[in-house]
Design goal:
The chain is built from 8 helices and 9 strands. The chain is of the alpha/beta class. The protein has 2 domains: 138 residues, no CATH class; 115 residues, Rossmann fold, CATH 3.40.50. The protein starts with a strand and ends in a 6-residue tail after the last helix.
Length: 257
């Protein structure tokens, strides 16, 4: 089975997923695209302003410093050929997986490149919305989502789950369709929200669980032993938090880190 990955380039959560997946399945990967967290219609300045508006200056700086430190360690460990890696590009290099780059995954030139690669399964762990031209390329497109679908579709599901006082959260691996986070579920698992949990700790836990479920989903697709589950009910969808949402989040004693 030939697998292709599209993953957002960041240093904390995504490497926790694909470090485990690549260890087990690296021979099956035919390519990786590292997707910028800055969307094609945005800019670095807009991205930074948006991050600060959500997390505040203190948390934003903590995240930034951590990312910079991880980036340095990542480069050192890649050169020495040992130790943990903290970027999807470095992980791909370690396992000799071809790397493809694009700012916009729906760019026609990039789509034409994908068409030349024989892809059985395309896995998405990135924020850009895939249009049907990409969805039609592989035999199967699947997505990793840090929520118990059909609830908490959209962005920042762990933020919204904390704000709503959920006692359980989880991860879903599902087929991709044109509607966001609406495809049939391949596998799903929950875990408890503890009193000390933060936005950051929940995403770290979700990353490790995502690795486990993605390995399971790929095995199921490989063997054809898949019993998918349709997303019943209306569920829920959330976009980026507004100022009043963030204020209520903090008033309730919830923390980002």
């Amino acid at each position: 089975m030939k697998i292709f990955i599209m993953a957002v380039e960041e240093a904390v959560y995504i490497p926790r997923i694909y470090n485990d997946v690549f260890k087990q399945r690296h021979k099956d990967f035919v390519g990786v695209t590292s997707v910028s967290p800055i969307t094609p219609k945005s800019s670095l300045i807009k991205f930074i302003k948006n991050q600060i508006s959500i997390f505040g200056y203190r948390v934003f700086l903590i995240f930034l410093i951590r990312a910079l430190l991880f980036s340095v360690v990542d480069k050192i460990n890649l050169l020495r050929g040992a130790g943990n890696l903290y970027s999807i590009k470095s992980l791909a290099k370690r396992y000799n997986i071809p790397i493809y780059t694009t700012r916009d995954i729906n760019d026609p030139t990039y789509i034409n490149t994908l068409k030349k690669i024989r892809i059985d399964v395309l896995v998405s762990s990135q924020p850009q919305i895939m249009k049907k031209d990409i969805l039609r390329i592989p035999k199967v497109c699947i997505n990793t989502h840090s929520a118990l679908l059909p609830y908490y579709r959209g962005v920042f599901p762990m933020f919204w789950a904390l704000l709503k006082g959920e006692k359980k959260v989880g991860v879903s691996i599902h087929y991709m369709v044109e509607k966001i986070d609406a495809g049939d579920i391949i596998c799903q698992e929950s875990f408890d929200v503890e009193s000390k949990d933060t936005f950051d700790s929940l995403y770290k836990k979700a990353s490790k669980l995502t690795a486990k479920l993605l390995i399971k989903a790929l095995y199921m697709l490989d063997t054809g032993d898949v019993t998918s589950l349709k997303q019943g009910g209306e569920g829920s969808y959330y976009s980026f938090p507004r100022k009043e949402d963030i204020k209520r989040f903090k008033l309730l004693g919830k923390r980002f880190i």
